[in-house]
Amino acid sequence: MKLTAIGTAGSFPGPNSAASCYLIETDEESPTRIVLDLGSGALSPLQRAVNTDGLTSVVLSHLHPDHCMDMTGLYVKHCYDPKFFNGNISDTGSIRTRTSVLAPAGAQERLTRAYYTDPGKSPVADSGHDADLSHAFDFADLDHGTSHQVGSLQIESFLVDHPVEAYALRITDANGAVITYSGDSDECDNLVEAARGADLFLCEAAFQEDRDSARGIHLTGKRAGRVAQAADAKSLVLTHIPSWTDCSIVCGEAAREYRGPIELAKPGNSWTV
């Protein structure tokens, strides 16, 4: 598997990066291509990395805007690109093969609310079409302990500690290689299990020790390192660090807890496992 960082900024798009988005591709004659999260601003750099018409699936770890909001733009692209749109604005039923979306329950309703705009006083309101994301996407629910086969990849979901329903994702390829993505989480047993023995652990570290005291929201570098060490992960890649945090401090915190190799995710960086 090849993992490419598309957007790595924490909590909102930063000056040098879109919000959370990562691309996983397999090295096969018919590759599996999965997007992990599609946060604010991420659709633009994603299109430079891959033809989004050929995505196998989008997997949303949770439904905060910095992890899912550019799904509304992907809906527009999939519906209104002239090569899919059939010219009859009242009929969007034959546009393209729908893209699989794995996400927490309620994702379709959440994203439909984000996309829909009341026509208000528009004099041509009747010419609009309904905001039905199922025209472009085929939604299925994530849940703790469930496993989904997407192309040649197996995706397991683990409920983690965050103020909304959120999942860490364990992705295993046909050869047994494993990438674990923390999504947003504080330190918890399920996150350790998700990362157990992973070849690469892509882990958020949005908080900083001695500055951010809230628990149950995000990891610090120290706690990310502690989880990686407890899970015996083979490598640790830190991400989701907001612009007000010094990355070197977070990496230093992690290095005091984790004895394996540590890298910092930056847009465009890629890793192969």
TrEMBL record:
| Tree of life domain | Bacteria
Q: Name one GO molecular function term.
A: 3'-tRNA processing endoribonuclease activity
SUPFAM superfamilies linked: Metallo-hydrolase/oxidoreductase
The record's annotation in Gene3D superfamilies points to: Ribonuclease Z/Hydroxyacylglutathione hydrolase-like
- CDD domains assigned to the protein according to its UniProt record, in alphabetical order: RNaseZ_short-form-like_MBL-fold
Give every Metallo-beta-lactamase domain span. 32-241
Q: InterPro entries under this entry?
A: Metallo-B-lactamas, RibonucZ/Hydroxyglut_hydro
PANTHER family attached to this UniProt entry: METALLO-HYDROLASE YHFI-RELATED (PTHR46018:SF4), ZINC PHOSPHODIESTERASE ELAC PROTEIN 1 (PTHR46018)
Instruction: Report the protein name in the record.
Output: Ribonuclease BN, tRNA processing enzyme
The organism is Brevibacterium antiquum
